[in-house]
Each structure stands twice: as structure tokens, then as C-alpha cells.
């Protein structure tokens, strides 16, 4: 009897679920969407986990930020502190700073959540930045993924703004100094700077409205845009499919990966739990941003050794390296030493990132689709440009702490500043040349590996006394990885008179693709390479001999 009753209940439950799903599916494309998602092939290379690390760090940010929102008061009105942190008892401070101390010392688990939130923001930004570099170095920004590249760059830019807004909310001496720098940056904008200053700060600095307004941006506007961009990014990934590394079975015309269930689901769930665990350990064991040590912000005081978080440290470095330079025109002062390194420089940087896919397509004349990842060594000029940009950023980041470095090593701040100015100009050039030489050397090593085989470590001696190294054949998989590459040829010189733009394009094309090491491949191998590297929108053609 009980078995029959249980069976009837199970049948009713299944019927109710089926009816509900059918009703929803008639109004929403649930079945179609679920079918497409379950059939999607997910990549299995470790480098694709960087995007997932960013996503799950953002999930931790949302969870911890929601908890902190329940207790934080963004008001800049003054109060007298009488909380549990006795060294500051009786100190006048803003409600924002007092509520930060309240979260840290009186809310159960508040300090742990604060620190997890801060560490999550740093990991989130680091994962996005590293993910963008992975996409750049492997050429995964090319058609049809230009829009997704632009979405990623926008996410990184908004995440920097979101991080700075959250960093400024406690109104401690450290974050207040950062807001003072931001005030100078806004004021340096020609013509409208002073008006923006009064609008954003709600009066003369320090004003009364900047922290409440940053709070709205931090918890509402910017997170909403980030969520929308993440959704768009994931939608484009599902629609356009992922790129993959070249190995047997992987071509420019297919998508190879693991199914969502059970492989990807198990892996990504494990990664999610690992990220939660690592961030929780960092929050519990590694102290970060101890605002009680800095004290409340006062406009007439600056903390010793004030340094911003790493993602905006390059702006501080640009300020310190830029020579003093200003212009007085018609009663208006333009502070070029602030305006150029903090507004013009990052503007040019992000504009270059947005336009680079179209610039490379213009240089190569390549309009085809690309689904195979480039090995960075096979695109030496692009790889060298990326490394040069990293060195440029690293020098600016070091310059942001020139006072701390000079104090630690007992050297002159002025001398160190001039060394860093020189390194900012010569460092990227040296890094470009060295990286390009290294990429070509790695190509030459690949050619030697194909022609001579892998060294076995054995040394033989002939009957005549000559010594020789032992070699063994290269595996088919490794040979495939080395040979299957797409190396564009430089544009041929134009016949007859040409426009200045065309001459520039031909010169840039030669600069980009003139230097490469040809690999030993016969006609049949070149034909197979062409079949595997040609996109789905084109017919395979005979690959050039220089491959």
C-alpha cells in the first residue's frame, strides 16, 4: 500500500514539474537554451581558467559586499568615536570612518568579511588583467571576437573605477589622500575642471558629498553595468565558441572541448570552492588595509609612505615622473604635469586596447575567422609589443613608490626619479628588442628540433674518434603543434604611385611579419597546414614556402 502511495506521489510530482516546465517553455526558450548550453564544448586548457577565476572572485565580491552594505554608513558628517577601539576613543571623525571601525571591531565576522572583500577585489582585477593578456598574446581577439575583446577591456576599466570607489569609502587617512589626488586630477581638466570639482565634492575640497556619491557608484551603478557586461561576455562566448590550442584534432574549423556535464561542471565547481577557500584564508590570515592604524582623514595631514593599490599605482607613478609643467592662458592655469599622466596617458592606453584588433587586421589585410590560438613565439612583434607595455606599466608602478624605495635603499629621491624617467623611455624599447629576439630564437629551436630531433643526452664516439650527440624522433603531437601555425606574409610592395596611407600600411606589415624562421615542411605538409589553419569562411589554399 505504501509503495503504491509513494509511486502515485512520485507520478504527481513528475507531472507537476513537467506541466510547469512546459508552461515556462511556451513563454521562454528554456528547452532550446538548455540544449545549447548542455551541448557546448568547454575548453580544457588551464589558461582558460583565468576568466573563471575573475567570475568567481566577482561572486565573492557581491556576497561580501552585500553583507558590508548592511552596516556601512557613507555619511561625511562628523561624530565623536566611542567604540571598542580604545586608541581612537574621543576622536572626531566622519560617520563613514566610524562605521568602518564598527564593522571591524564590533560586527560579528565584520573584519573577516572586510578583508575577504578587499582581497577578492585585488584577485578580480588581477584575473581580468591576466586574462586580457592571455587573449592578446594568443590572438584570441581577432574576428569574430573583436566585440568580446572590447567588452573585456571595458570590464577592466570599470573594475578599476569600482576598486578605487570602494578603496575611498572608509574615509581614513590613506584613502583620503587618494581622494585628494583624484581632486587634483579632476581640477586639472581644462576649462571645466573647477566646475566638476565643486559638483562631485559638493563644494570646496574636502566637501560633503564625494563619499555618498562614490557609495552609490560602488554598490549600485558600476556593479550593475559589470553584471550586464559579464552576461554579454558569457553570451558571446557561448555564441562564438572558444578558441583552442593547436594539437591533433584541433583545427581552425572546429571546436574541441569537454561537455558541460559532468566534466566541466565538476571542474568548475571545484575551482569555485578553491577560490572561496583561498580568499577566506587570505582574509583570515593576511591583514590588509588596517584603517585603524591610519586614523581618520584630515585635509592638513598626509600619511607617510602612502601608496595606492597596484591597479592605479601607475597613475601615481606618472604623476611623480612627469616634470613640472603648466600653462597660463587668459587667466586659466592648465596643469599639464597632472593632466597628461593621469588623463591623457590612460586615455591613450585604453584607446589603443580598444582599437588594436582593427589595427592588426588593417596591417595584415586578414578578414578571416580565427579559432586557433597563436603560440606567442610565432607572432614575435605582437608578443614584443605586449611585453614592452608590461615593462612600461612596471616602471610607472615602481615610480609610484619612489619615496619608499629611496628611503629603504638610502638613495636620493631625485636621482631615482631620473633613473626611472630614463627607464620609462628605454625600458620598453629594450624589452621589445629582447622579446622579439627571444621569440625568433625559440622558432629557430623549433626548426632545429624538427630537423635533428630531440636530444637523448647520449654522446657517441665513432671509430675515428669523432664525438656526436644522440637524437630521437619528435612525437607526432609535438610536430603538429610546431608545424601548424598561421604566419601572415608581409604585404607586397605596390607597383606605381601609391598613397601615403598605403605606403605606411606596407611598411608596418613588413615590420610586423618580415622576421620569422621558416620551418621544414614539404608540399603535402604545407597543404595540410593550410587546411587546418584556414577559417570556416574560406577555402583552403596552398600555404607559402616560408611556412
UniProtKB/TrEMBL annotation:
Keywords: Membrane, Transmembrane, Transmembrane helix. Residues 524-541 have a biased composition (Basic and acidic residues). PROSITE patterns: CYTB_NTER. Residues 519-547 are annotated as: Disordered. It holds the Pfam family Cytochrom_B_N_2. Residues 20-246 form the Cytochrome b/b6 N-terminal region profile domain. The chain crosses the membrane at residues 48-72, 116-137, 149-169, 215-238, 270-288, 334-356, 385-409, 415-434. The keyword rRNA-binding does not apply. It catalyses: a quinol + 2 Fe(III)-[cytochrome c](out) = a quinone + 2 Fe(II)-[cytochrome c](out) + 2 H(+)(out). Its cofactor is heme. InterPro entries: Cyt_b/b6_N (IPR005797), Cytb/b6-like_sf (IPR027387), Di-haem_cyt_TM (IPR016174). Its EC number is 7.1.1.8. This is Cytochrome bc1 complex cytochrome b subunit.
Amino acid at each position: 500500500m505504501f509503495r503504491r502511495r509513494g509511486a502515485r506521489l512520485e507520478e504527481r510530482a513528475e507531472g507537476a514539474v513537467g506541466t510547469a516546465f512546459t508552461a515556462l517553455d511556451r513563454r521562454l526558450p528554456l528547452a532550446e537554451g538548455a540544449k545549447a548550453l548542455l551541448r557546448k564544448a568547454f575548453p580544457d586548457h588551464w589558461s582558460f581558467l583565468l576568466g573563471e577565476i575573475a567570475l568567481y572572485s566577482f561572486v565573492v565580491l557581491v556576497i561580501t559586499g552585500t553583507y558590508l552594505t548592511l552596516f556601512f554608513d557613507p555619511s561625511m558628517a562628523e561624530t565623536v568615536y566611542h567604540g571598542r577601539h580604545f586608541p581612537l576613543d574621543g576622536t572626531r571623525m566622519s560617520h563613514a570612518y566610524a562605521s568602518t571601525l564598527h564593522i571591524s571591531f564590533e560586527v560579528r565576522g565584520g573584519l573577516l568579511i572586510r578583508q575577504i572583500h578587499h582581497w577578492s577585489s585585488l584577485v578580480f582585477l588581477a584575473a581580468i588583467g591576466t586574462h586580457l593578456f592571455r587573449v592578446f598574446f594568443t590572438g584570441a581577439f581577432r574576428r569574430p571576437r573583436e566585440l568580446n575583446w572590447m567588452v573585456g577591456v571595458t570590464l577592466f576599466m570599470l573594475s578599476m573605477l569600482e576598486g578605487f570607489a570602494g578603496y575611498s569609502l572608509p574615509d581614513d587617512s590613506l584613502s583620503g589622500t587618494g581622494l585628494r589626488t583624484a581632486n587634483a586630477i579632476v581640477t586639472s581638466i581644462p576649462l571645466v575642471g573647477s566646475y566638476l570639482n565643486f559638483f562631485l565634492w559638493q563644494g570646496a575640497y574636502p566637501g560633503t558629498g564625494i563619499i555618498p556619491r562614490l557609495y552609490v557608484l560602488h554598490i549600485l551603478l558600476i556593479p550593475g553595468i559589470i553584471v550586464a557586461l559579464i552576461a554579454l561576455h558569457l553570451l558571446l562566448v557561448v555564441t562564438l565558441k572558444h578558441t583552442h590550442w593547436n594539437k591533433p584534432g584541433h583545427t581552425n574549423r572546429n571546436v574541441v572541448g569537454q561537455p558541460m556535464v559532468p566534466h566541466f561542471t565538476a571542474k568548475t565547481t571545484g575551482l569555485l570552492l578553491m577560490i572561496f577557500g583561498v580568499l577566506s584564508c587570505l582574509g583570515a590570515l593576511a591583514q590588509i588595509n588596517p584603517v585603524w592604524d591610519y586614523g581618520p582623514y584630515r585635509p592638513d595631514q598626509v600619511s607617510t609612505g602612502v601608496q595606492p593599490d597596484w591597479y592605479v599605482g601607475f597613475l601615481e607613478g606618472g604623476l611623480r615622473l612627469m616634470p613640472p609643467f603648466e600653462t597660463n592662458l587668459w587667466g586659466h592655469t592648465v596643469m599639464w604635469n597632472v593632466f597628461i599622466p593621469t588623463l591623457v596617458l590612460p586615455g591613450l592606453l585604453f584607446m589603443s586596447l580598444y582599437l588594436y584588433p582593427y589595427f592588426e587586421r588593417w596591417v595584415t589585410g586578414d578578414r578571416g575567422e580565427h579559432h586557433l590560438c597563436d603560440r606567442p613565439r610565432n607572432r614575435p612583434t605582437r608578443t614584443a609589443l605586449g611585453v614592452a607595455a608590461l615593462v612600461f606599466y612596471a616602471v610607472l608602478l615602481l615610480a609610484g613608490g619612489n619615496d619608499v624605495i629611496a628611503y629603504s635603499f638610502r638613495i636620493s629621491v631625485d636621482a631615482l626619479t631620473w633613473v626611472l624617467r630614463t627607464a620609462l623611455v628605454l625600458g620598453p624599447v629594450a624589452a621589445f628588442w629582447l622579446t622579439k629576439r627571444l621569440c625568433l630564437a625559440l622558432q629557430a629551436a623549433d626548426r632545429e628540433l624538427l630537423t635533428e630531433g630531440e636530444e637523448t643526452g647520449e654522446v657517441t664516439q665513432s671509430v675515428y674518434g669523432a664525438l656526436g650527440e644522440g637524437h630521437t624522433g619528435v612525437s607526432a603531437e609535438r610536430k603538429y603543434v610546431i608545424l601548424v601555425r598561421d604566419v601572415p606574409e608581409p604585404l607586397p610592395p605596390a607597383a606605381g604611385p601609391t598613397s601615403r596611407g598605403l605606403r605606411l600600411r606596407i611598411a608596418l606589415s613588413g615590420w610586423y611579419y618580415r622576421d620569422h624562421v621558416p620551418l621544414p615542411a614539404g608540399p603535402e605538409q604545407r597543404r595540410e597546414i593550410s587546411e587546418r589553419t584556414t577559417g570556416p569562411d574560406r577555402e583552403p589554399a596552398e600555404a607559402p614556402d616560408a611556412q
